[in-house]
Each structure stands twice: as C-alpha cells, then as structure tokens.
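Supplementary notes for students who missed Thursday's class. We covered one full example, reproduced here. Read the sequence, then the structure, then the short commentary at the end.
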Amino acid sequence: MPWQNQGGDGSRKPDDGAGDKNPWGAAPKNDTPKNPWGDPPRNDNPWGGPPKNPWGSGPDLEGLVRGAQEKLGKFGPGDITPRIGAMIAGVLALLWLSSGFYTVDPNQVGLNLVFGRYVGKTGPGLNYNWPSPVGDVVKLNVTDRNSIDIGARGVPSISSIGEAPEESLMLTGDENIADVKFRVIWQIDPSKPEDFAFNIKNPAETIKAVAESAMREIVGRTQIQRLLTAERKVIEPAAQKAMQDILDSYHAGVTILQVQLLSVDPPPTVIAAFRDVTAAQQDRSRFINEAQAEANKIVPQARGEASKIERDAEAYREQTVAEARGQTARFLKIFNEYKKAPEVTRERLYLETMERVLHSGDKIMLDRAGALPVLPLNPLQGGEHSNTKPAGGR
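Structure (token representation):
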C-alpha cells in the first residue's frame, strides 16, 4: 500500500481504497477543518506527525524531512498518471530549452554549433542556441591584442630580453649569422572567427612558426650590414606582409597588426669584431664625405680654368685662320697681277722684300775706295732708320 491514512488518534490505518484517487495518497477522512497553527493540534498532517506551531518552538524540520523521505520511498510508477507524466516532461523540456540562452561580451563573438557543426555566429548581447548536448557555443575574444616573442623568453621590456638562440640565430644573405629578436602583435579576424576556431589546432604555435619562417626568409635575402643599419625599417613591414600572406593561405582567421624588431645584433662571440667593422665603415663614410666636399670645391674651379683655356684656344684658332685666309687672298691678288705683268711684279716684290729686310738692320755702304763707316744718326734723332748717305756726299 503506497499511502497510509491517519486516524484521529494519530494511529496509522491501511488505505481501504475509498474516496477519490490521489497520487499522493488517500484523502483524510476527518472532515474537521485543518488549522496547522491552531491549538490543540489536529492529527491530519499527511506527513505523519502533528504540526508544530511556527510561533512557538518552530516546525519539526527533521520530522518533515523524514516523512517526505518515507512518502517518496513508497511512491511507485503506478501512482503517476499520463497527465502528470506529460506535465513533468513539459516542465523538464522547458527547463532544458531555457538553458540555451547565453550572453556574449562586447569584445567577443559567439560561434553556434549544432551536433558539432558550425551554423553561424552571434554578436554581443543575449543570444540563443540549442542547449547541450544538441548545441554548443564557442566564445572568442576578437578585439583582444595578443603578442608572441620570437627569440626571447619573458620579455617585459627590451632591456630584459631572455635568450632563445634556437629561434633568434638566423643566416643572412652574405653567409653571416645574425641574432634577431622580434615581437608579433596579432588578433583574431572579426570577420572570420570561425576560421580561427576550426581551421588551426594550436593558433599560438602556428603563428609563432609562421613568423619565424617568414623572418628567416627575409633575413636570408639581406646582407648583415644592411640588417644592422638601414634595412631594419624595411624588414618589419616586409615580414608582416609575408606572415599575413601565409596565414591567409592557411585560412587561419588571424590578422597580423605589427612586427617589432626588438634587437638585431651579431652573435656574442663576434660582436667586438663587428663593432670594429662598423667603426671602420663610419670612418670610410666620413672620409668619403670629406673628399666629396673637397671635390665640390676644386672641380668647379678646374672646370672654369679649362673653359678659359678652351675659349683662348678657340680665339687663337679663329685669329690664325683669319690671318691665313687674308694671306691667301693677298697672294691670290698678287698672283693675278703677276700674270698680267711678270717683270714689273717681280721687281716690285724684290724691292718690297728688301725694304722689309733692310729697314731695321745696320747698313754698310761700299765705295770704290773701300768700306766707309756710316754715321748712326738714328740714336741721335730718336727716330726710325733713315736712308744714309756716304761721307763724301755721295
């Protein structure tokens, strides 16, 4: 018998089946109104004991719990009607469905899964998906910036870089070794968070491997001297682009925000020699600059002098050519006259030639008696040489 009815005297009597069916037991036969707070107490409590006065010593919680356990222990499947079973199933179903509500933070994106298959993403706020085990939700922090250090361990600042030579030592294009430490700043692509969640197994390790591979490729094409000086600002954007291209080919759902070179140095064993080389290169640059300044001073002066010489030579050439042309024209005119009167022309040419030859030279006059000295009158007169006459009046 699942339930026992209580008599007025508090004794328990077996249920005779009379009265309406009640899943919690037969209705008590005592028609007296129940007043759990009245005095004297009535023995009509279905839990098997007289009610306690709540304003007195308080309810008998231990007795209530013991009575509930006893009733539930005697409760069997035969006592549940179809209507009650449907109600219980409906309540459980509502509770299960209500567990599918979830919230997404402003910096997150929710990925809805149904039977393990991706069906869509949700934005910040209150959202719904099928509850477990049918559905599941993966929340990703898409606005958070993450950083990975390659070649270093635990780097709070550049001044306290840890060593990881297996990652930082790289071969350069001129077959030298450079110690390259750099940092990669990345975040989940807000437009493709499902790629980040489902296409790569270990995102951090994947990004680190891609970053190291891309940096080794770029360093391998660069000479160490450029790597230590002018090429540093070129390497960072080139490495960022190479990393982004590789991750996009993987459909990783990752955006590379920045690549920062923390330090680029030669290996510690040869750093002193590289410093000497750097100092020598700086001296070479200084000498080249000084020589260039001296060249800028001397070359214009030399070019001016060369230009002057060229102009003088050009003037001399023009003068000589003009004189030659004049002499040629004079000779042609004389030749034309010579053809007309050869004897007269020869005599004239002879006389003009002798005049030019004897004009500036000393003269000695010969007579039949012998050589006679000629009085040099030119120094006394201070003039040109004049025709001299012999002392005898001749």
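Commentary. Confidence is low (pLDDT under 50) at residues 1-33, 155-161, 388-394. DSSP finds ten helices and 13 strands in the chain. If anything here is unclear, bring it to office hours.
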